[in-house]
Write a structure and sequence with these properties.
The longest helix has 14 residues. The strands form 4 sheets. The chain has an 8-stranded parallel beta sheet, with helices on both faces. Helix content is 36%, strand content 19%. The protein contains 9 helices and 14 strands. Helix 1 packs parallel to helix 8. The chain has 274 residues and is an alpha/beta fold. (5S)-5-amino-3-OXO-hexanoic acid binds next to strand 6.
Length: 274
Amino acid sequence: MEKLIITAAISGAEVTKEMNPAVPYKIEEFVKESKSVYNAGASIIHLHVRHDDGTPTQDKERFRIIIDAIKNECPDVIIQPSTGGAVGMSNDERLQPTELLPEMATLDCGTLNFGGDEIFENTENTIKYFGKRMIELGIKPELEVFDKSMIDMALRLAKKGFIQSPMHFDFVMGVNGGITGELRDFVFLRGSIPPDATYTVAGIGRFEFPLAVAAIIDGGHIRVGFEDNLNISKGVLAKSNGELVDKVVRLAKEFGREIANPTEARRILGLKQR
Ligand code: KMH
Ligand code: ZN
């Protein structure tokens, strides 16, 4: 079994300091949270950025400043910018961080309800547009799937040349409007991807750690972080993103699964360091 790649989704676009005071907004807070996850064993940082007041932004310059500041402290960490951004942003607004030529970026594979009146919109043409852009720029997409139909969409678009193989999926499980985080649904998703594909699983809220254990046993990879879950245990806020990564590392050790460093993660995912 390959070593375990841990991705830390340290900020997201929806969670706020009111929900957990450690959610990063300012540059120094992004650096602090990045160091906490890197030192704990994460090799990938899934990155959304904010203005100092917490407003989510896909501004290229804000990404550049925060990525440079993170790389100063964590030189070999893999930065995976979001191209999902926040609900309501335009396609070109969302794509801005790809101009910085990251090794990886997310590629969201379908539209879904996102709670209340919110719709996270990713039409077929949007997915094609993002996929084509990432092929042109040599960026490996992490295919964000919130439901089984989004795997089917990715497989169909791969046949048409908009996504290259081997594919790397992120099963985001437990979003209101997406697939649940039940083990039955995890088994369904993981059985629906091609044999040469890799996957990571991001369980939302209470699903984060049970699904982490499923991936540890199954040979998959794991995403944790404030974007997905703010608590270290029921009713107890995590003090940092690093505390969430620490818990995954402890669980992996219990099951004898070793943790991948960034070099090993690059090999497993076929990334080229720039
Ligand atoms: N913030 C969500 C609307 C991604 O990073 O690609 C979308 C999201 C997915 O977080
Ligand atoms: Zn995200």
